[in-house]
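YM 10:42: Outer membrane protein beta-barrel domain-containing protein sequence, as discussed on the call
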Amino acid sequence: MARLIIFVILVSFSNNAFAQKDKTNAGRFEISVGSGALIPVGKFASTSTTGFEQTVFAIQGDTQYDIQYFSKRNHGHARRGGDINLEVNFLAGRFWVHGLSFGQSSNAIRIESANKYFGSNQFPMEVNFHEKYEVQNLAYLIGYRFILTNSVEFRPFQKIGFSRLTFPFYILESINSPGTTLIHDRDRPKSNSLYLESGLLASISLSKKFDLGFNLSYRFADFDYIMYKRVVPGGSTTLIVPDQVNLRAIMTGFRLAYKL
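YM 10:58: structure's back
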């Protein structure tokens, strides 16, 4: 909520800037491409197995079951990944920036803690496959330019928009009975979430047209999804297993911008 309030205040101030007579650089567009590392923190980075055992329901009926599965809620088990992004910005006067941001990131999953947990159970299993966290985002950007010299600039910014996560599909296979697996039994739809990113850009002018910048930002999104788990072959009761991926990550990388 605090981020949303700050975002609204920034937009209000920037709208006032349009009415000012000082139109230095007004009307110029900027296109940038960037890439870097996406470093999981907090819930996204946690490798705890707390919450693996949950009470869930059969798909037909009210029967409750206590089962163990690879829960992502509060413990994402994410590895360091990569990010690529594209921005189209409008330089509003000398100081304010408005823009659109498009990005995609990928983080592999740490399975060591999960497999240690599942392997010690009465019926030992292991994770033999897990999709990466593939996330796409589209966001509105607002920033403020602190111009130190003609060639050096610092730009705090805030992004707000939507993001989409590829279904975090995985397979659990029995260690004692190879081929016996716990699978997701339905379609694998992508999950959507509100997307927030707060950060700072430092850039230096290479020429009148090109800038080289360094980005440091924090990303936030929560993706709800539902698994329908059953054992194959042989069949079993299909269980409804709600879960969530909590994206919490620091992005750091470089970007090259071109002013039109």
